[in-house]
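Team,

Forwarding the record for the chain on the shared tracking sheet. I've put the sequence and predicted structure together so nobody has to dig through attachments.
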Amino acid sequence: MAFWLFKSEPDAWSWDQQVAKGAAGEEWNGVRNYQARNNMRAMQIGDLGFFYHSNVGKEVVGIVEVCALSHPDSTTDDPRWDCVDIRAVRPLPRPVTLEAAKAEPRLAGMALVTNTRLSVQPVSPEEWSVVCELGGL
């Protein structure tokens, strides 16, 4: 199993909207960055990810699961762009802010800290454990 981080502006797509989609989940569409797309192409069913509110809040608020493999993004006819489907698993008891992640030495190499613009990022197993710990899991 691999771990990931999915960023969304909460006024465009929020954790509450993701939760409302239930077990069926929702396409993580609209990504127009090759590195983020390639990350989605590497995902497997059952991989877990952090759901991160960007711009407003700037915090990890929940955990999602990949429930459909990479497929064409339904929001474009351009064959270069793919997406996966994700479903909400659980909220974090305590959201983990970007400020807290940057202040944690064990997360110094995390993409969230070093490449804040990438919308879909890999997360190492060690980083996953630290963020879960900070989030009260």
